[in-house]
Amino acid sequence: MCRNIKTLHNYKPPATDEEIRASSIQFVRKLSGFARPSKANELAFNRAVERVEKAARDLLDSLVTNAPPRDREVEASKARARAAVRMR
Questions:
Q1: What is the mean pLDDT of residues 17-32?
Q2: Most buried residue among 7, 45, 55, 80 by CB atoms closer than 10 A?
Q3: HSE of 10, CA atoms in CB hemisphere, 13 A
Q4: Closest Cα to residue 58, out of 2, 7, 20, 10?
């Protein structure tokens, strides 16, 4: 799967519409193989992004967990630490 798609469930504050849209675009780009679709494929590409975005929002709204919400700053620092180890 695409490494740019981030986990959006169980964060405080919850995922924003912009984050969900960005993940949807990345998912459709990965599936289609297009970073930017041609004019001929633009409508289908944008329609797919909208559908994936709606499905992602529906999914996130319906998921439940007993785990405490994750802190964005803590998770970002963990990711930076993992990247530093990888880059050595």
A1: 95
A2: 45
A3: 9
A4: 20
Among the listed residues 20, 19, 23, 18, the one whose alpha carbon sits nearest the alpha carbon of residue 5 = 23
DSSP at 35:
S
Q: How many CB atoms lie within 10 A of CB 12?
A: 9
* Bridge partner residues of 10 (DSSP): none
Give residues with Cβ within 8 angstroms of 27, minimum separation 6: 2, 5, 52
What is the token pair recorded at 17? 């519409």
Q: What is the pTM of this model?
A: 0.81
For residue 54 the two structure tokens come to 């709606």
Q: What is the DSSP letter of 8?
A: -
| Mean pLDDT, range 56-77, rounded to an integer | 93
